Amino acid sequence: MRVAIVQFPGSNCDLDTLHALRDVLEMDARLVWHQDFEEKEFDAVVLPGGFSYGDYLRAGAIAAHSRAMHGVKRMAEGGRPVLGICNGFQTLVESGLLPGALLRNACLRFMCRWMELSVVSNDSAFTARLEEGHRIRMPIAHNEGRYFLDEEALANLERNRQVVLRFAADNPNGSVNKIAGICNKKRNVVGIMPHPERACEQIVGGEDGKLIFTSLEEWRR
Amino acid sequence: MSSLPPDVSLTEDEIIHVRRSLAREPNALEWFMIDAEWSEHCSYKSSRMVLERLPTRGNLVVQGPGYDSGVLDIGDGYVLTAHVESHNHPSAVDPYGGAATGIGGVIRDVLCVGTRPIALLDMLRFGPIESSSHSRWLLKNVVRGIADYGNCTGIPTVAGEVEFDEGFERNCLVDVACIGVGRKSDLVLAEARNPGDTVILVGGSTGRDGIHGVTFASRALARDSDEDRPAVQIADPFLKKLTIEATLEAIKTGFVRGLKDLGGGGLTCACSEMAAKAGAGIEIDLSQIHLREEDMSTIEIMISESQERMMFIVEQGREGSVEEIFRRYEVPFARIGRVKEDGNIVVRRGSVEVARLPSQFLASAPISPRPKTAPKVSKPKLEVESVDLKRILIEMLSSPNIASKSWIFTQYDHEVGVRTVLKPGQGDAAVLRLPNGRFAALKADGNSVYCSLDPRRGVQNVFAEACRNLVAVGAKPVAMLDHLQFGDPGDPEVFWSFEETVDGLAEAARHFNIPCIGGKVSFYNEDDRTGKAIKPTPIIFVIGLIDDEKSITRMAMKSTGDSVIIVGKTRRDMGGSEFSRIHRLTGSAAPRMDLDLERRTMGAVLECIGEGYVGSCHDCSRGGLAVAISEMAVAGNMGASIDLDAVPSDPLLPHELLFSESNSRFILTTNRARDIIALFENQKIPCSAIGTVGGDQLCLSGRGSGTSVAMSELREAYEESFERIVNR
Questions:
Q1: Whole domain around residue B688: which residue ranges?
Q2: Residue B87 is among the residues annotated as catalytic for this protein
Q3: How far out from the chain centre does Cα A205 lie?
Q4: pLDDT score, position B90
Q5: Does residue A197 have an active-site annotation?
Q6: Residue A164 in contact with residue A58, Cβ under 8 Å?
Q7: Which of A78, A106, B18, B125 has most Cβ atoms within 10 angstroms of its Cβ?
Q8: CATH code where residue B636 lies
């Protein structure tokens, strides 16, 4: 399985994600500069964290309109796995591939902390290896991570079991229903605020993030 | 007729020197170029002679002070680079923008030697935030400025320290250090060595921001400093991120022969310093530069300090391969000139020559000799009435100088890069993994109160504390950088304290065998209303190395039943302590310093850690023994029982024993107490088992006194006070 990590100007977790996938997990992953992205060459795609286009306008808003996102949309429609981490999640929401919006944290501060997360659904391309009801630890690092959706849409999201991760204890950013990650209806497009690539080695704090990436291998439809 | 412009800040003597050396009257642009390059900020004209006393050589040192970054050889073909910067005056006027551009500058210093910036440290000083809303406003905006800039560039902010003192109410200090890592073979010098090579200006456009930035920094803040806002530059971390990636990729081509960031003094300093270092000249054409505003004068272009700009010297004929990389990252660039043989800096605008000055002349400002006198010592106030130990301990843990700074460090992305092994709050220093399997430990310390009592002993305390912090995480200190911040060097008392500081630092550095690989001097830090200088504030940034992952040691207490051990002797060292600050006691002396004992103690602790005897380790300094043990207990979320009678000490009152800030002390927890005590006894270093880890209380008993505090109370004081004060 060949995984693309799309680099936008201002992406800054691209190298970390490559390190996790290629060096730690020995997966076939490569960096692709956004202008060079050809979706036909890949089985799955990761939009890494960072500040694409400086987060000018709104976080993820400019990247959402890039040419590369047309390719990502075709992959999503074709059922291939798409993961957005942090700024990647913001980009997926801005591009309409995932519902809702990511607002400024309720505390009005950037927040970098390791968080306990509870696994709500393992029926998605990037949670298939996780046990529902279990807790995992990964760090967050964001300023705009407060997931928001109006009441009716939220009820739908919950009913369809599209929430995949929730903050288990504290709610660091004020997300509705403590949401930390969601998927689309087809369950192949996943967006999460925590950084699994920062939780793939014990030496830097934990290994739970590995399961997010290796879920790819488990999830085949 | 003289063309000397009215706002040039050169002294009478310097003006005479210029006219005599050039044997002609410079034009206005030339005066401004000389003014920028000869500012204290760029030329170190007051400090240069004194700084030469610092030891700068060592086995690992590839490049020492005088360059954009210090460079250390960390083995296996890799180098570690480091630099420190401050942005004190800009941050006092515009805390958000000033703090952000301060980081921007230090990142470029590390980048321009050809290494990837991998970590930032921030050392901040403000007035008392408990009582001053102005200082709270400064703190909030400085932290947000650092966070927004650092987080966006993808460089983690991994450590720092903060001090609150009345002396900083009207002149905050905002210091930042950056370290980088790279291949030794990719190092680039800030030199224009080969005539014919092309000068390419890369990055942001040149605008009117930061005009006169260096002269702004080289005098005291004035009452109308708000009108100096154009002297504060505008930050663009997004462009910085692109510039970092484009620069590192360009270096890989092998065609970049020289590189320098445009910081203080802008184009003027970059051109003259690169040319002077190589004994060459540079000719540039200002009409090629991408300007932010059309009608900028030659003077404005030459001294603008607009951010995110780098000057590349590229091998003639190879410009295309380098420029292709800039194009790909959509980073603006322009060929603006050539390296010349004749040793002159020549500035043209189109075909008209507007300035011509010898590069050596520009880059060597005459030394300003400064008189010095020791200040009079004021009478100490040292008496304290009866002390409620529990109340004082809670008060100390709640003090912004001691309480957990998690409100600050959670705003910084300290994880990006996945190198951060010890994160803020986990140990006495940050620990990062390096590409060759080793680990770097980083810590910067400062203590303006000690240094005001005795600058020589004060800086030795600061330096030793930073070293102990590294030792506590298991690292051997290998190099340091000094950031020296003082008032007006023309004041003989200020200059006396500056010299004492450098001498004290040099003495300790020789004793510890730790070379200085870089630094920065910032003068003219004073209160704009009273004209009173800040307390002498040297910040010492020490870099350590760890070879074995198993040596990395945290401060959290680990297991119930472990012994608590104190290393070192507690003496009556209350001068300048946090206890004295809280009780408004003044005067007395900074803690005593026995450099030999300090060095031996650090060596023995490292030995214990290397042997695997140590469960957790914490330096015992600010706040004293009671605070150090509380911090370890809170971090490990477990209590301890301590027998104060077992602490090796002079005859002391209970509060002195608990809160004295004597040097050369550590607290360890261990299940190998007997081995540790034997090791220290062998080396004739005081050491004693003083208690046991466990329970949900911290019990301090003995000396006919004592107290016990519930862990929940300690935790609340230590972990929640800072945010409560900030949000007042």
A1: 389-405+414-418+553-726
A2: yes
A3: 20
A4: 84
A5: yes
A6: no
A7: B125
A8: 3.90.650.10
